[in-house]
Every structure is written in structure tokens, then in C-alpha cells.
Amino acid sequence: MNRPILAYFVSLTALAFAAGCRPSSDGVVADAPAKMETAAAALGSGPPATTPQAYPKPSRDVIRQKLTPLQFEVTQKDATEPAFDNAYWNNHAAGIYVDIVTGEPLFSSLDKFESGTGWPSFTRPIESGHIVSKTDSTFGMARTEVRSASGDSHLGHLFDDGPAPTGLRYCTDSAALRFIPEARLDAEGYGAYKARFEGGSNASTPPPAATNNACVTPPPGENAGCSATLETAIVAGDERDAAALSREPGVLQVDRGTAHGASALRVTYDPKKISYAHVLDAWARSAGASGQAAKALVLAVTPEQRAAADAWRAHPTTTSPAGIDVETGAAAEFTPSAK
Fold first, then answer.
1. What's the pLDDT at 148?
2. pLDDT tens, position by position, 236-293
3. Is 21 a catalytic site residue?
4. CB atoms within 10 A of CB 333
5. Which among 156, 159, 144, 150 is positioned nearest to 79, based on CA atoms?
6. For the structural domain made of 32-197, what CATH number should be given?
7. Strand 297-300 with 325-328, pairing
């Protein structure tokens, strides 16, 4: 028996600067290294709990074997994952964030705040010495890139429009991070950080939401400039469809979850290697081959995405589900499955 299919296609189109939004008036956080050191020292937790030397960088072959294609593209090739379609942008649990490559401690949930950008944002590193900065002149602008000290992993960018106490915003990629919950700190070898989350003088609370930045509210006449180099398409499907899409060249990661109560897949892909339409074609071939049914709903998050979905629907492949409906919605309506 054929089963109804609910498909949501979200194309986050753009090519701008990675995991960040607004530089200072001259395009650079001019004294970024000094500010980072000051901010880290302001943690008030004494000497660093660990040193970068404790987390050696593996060989490139080992890194490639260890990471998913998406994680490799972000950390080793400086790509940027889509906003609101990543693992930690909305994570409010207590714990620390470490380099996905080496395990080096980078950030704490105690310094994580809601920036409205759709990427994990922090006011400062977990302590001094674990993050280094460099000037990034890609995309025709000068910015401050941040990388892990030991692994040299691309993490994101640093901006000077964050909240107190530092006035900084570390705008990062979830794909560059691994989250260690507070309850797992001892077991994972990060027990030295546990006291920061316990009661007493060492305890603190995360900064409040601070969404007044040029990514969310750009100055009049200026573009937000906050976008991704990678894109996503969210489609209904099961593990068979996920496996088929994962084999497509240019597809970096396929996450399972739900959207509007239906089983769904979030497909992250490199638009330089595969187009949105080809992702939809690949999904249609998988859905048709598995005998899936005749109705699909397209969820577009911008007028451009609506137009692209309409155009694709107007020229279906021979295996495309029939009766496709197009609706407008939000990328965040995809909920990933718990891992």
C-alpha cells in the first residue's frame, strides 16, 4: 500500500561570510587578540584547566576518517553550515563545547547566549590559550576568523556586537564542535571544568539573549550579510531515502528527524557540487523507487525558495510524487531525532 509522503524542501541560498554577521565599522575587530585574552581572564576560575598541547592534532587522513563530510568541510575547508539547521544553535543544556577534531575545550554553556543568528554564539572562550584569531579577507571584506589553537580547526568568526561582560560575539559552526553535557564531564575526561557548574562562588548563569546585531537587524540600506556557504533541503523520508541521498556527490550529511509530525530528512549539501534541483531529483528517484505515495508538501522559507520549489514542481521527473503542494514556513520546523 502506498503511504502519504510529506516533503519539506528548504534551500538556504547564499554565499557570504562564514558563521558570523557584523564586523566593526572598519570591518575588523581591531584588537581581537587582546580582547580575547582579557575576556578569558575574566572567567575568574584561576589557571587554565588544560593546555592546547594536551590535544594533539591527528594527521589529515585520520581526521578525514574520523569526521563526517560536513564536519570535514567546515573545520578543514572553512565552510559554513546553514543557520538554524545545525546541531547546537538552540542547545540550552549545561556543559562545554570542544573541538570536534582534537577534543580541545573551547567554549562553555555559561557563556552561550541567544544571538538570533541561528548559529551557536558565545561571549568568550572557556579560558585563554585555546582559541587563536587571524585576519580573514575572503568575500572581499576584512574579518576576524577564530580557530582552535591545537587542531587549527576553523570555528567561525569574532565580532564586536555581543553582550556584556565582553561585548564580543563568537559566532561558530556547530559542525566544528562536540558538546559534553555537565553530567558527562568526569567520564569524558573534563572533570576539571565541573566546578564551574556547581553551586557556590564559582557558579554563574549564561548571558541573556542579545539579538541586536547587524545579522538580525542590519542598518538601513545594508544587507544582513549573515549567511552560509552550504545549503539544506528538508525532505520527508526514511532510512532508505537517507542512504540514497547520502550517496549523492556533493551531499555532506543527512540527518533524520520530523517536520509537521512526519518523518523527515535534513540534507546538507555543497551548492558548488550539486544544485538544489538535483537534490530534489535525487529524493524523487528514491521516493519513486520505494513506491512512496503520491502527495508531497514543499515548505519554502523565503520567496526565492518558494519560486524554486514551484519551478521544480512544474517539471517533475517520471518518478516524482504527484500532487505536490507548496507552503511557506520556517527552516526551524525540522526537529532532528535524538542521538
1. 96
2. 888 998 999 999 999 999 999 988 788 888 999 999 999 988 888 888 888 755 555 4
3. no
4. 16
5. 156
6. 2.170.150.20
7. parallel
Neighbours of 305 (CB within 10 A): 23
Q: 50 with 102: CB under 8 angstroms? A: no
> For the chain, which residues make up each domain, given as ranges?
32-197, 231-336
Cell of 108: 562553555
Cell 557584523 locates to 22
CA atoms of 124 and 44, how far apart (whole Å): 13
- The fraction of the chain above a pLDDT of 90, given in percent, is 42
177 near 58, Cβ under 8 Å? no
CA–CA gap between residue 277 and residue 281 (Å, rounded): 6
**3-state secondary structure labels for all residues of 90-122:** CCCCCEEEEECCCCCEEEEHHHEECCCCCCCEE
Residues 6+ apart with CB under 8 A from 235: 7, 8, 9, 241, 245, 264, 265, 267, 280, 283
Please check whether the domain covering 231-336 is classified as CATH 3.30.230.10: no
Question: Is 184 in contact with 136 (CB distance < 8 Å)?
Answer: no
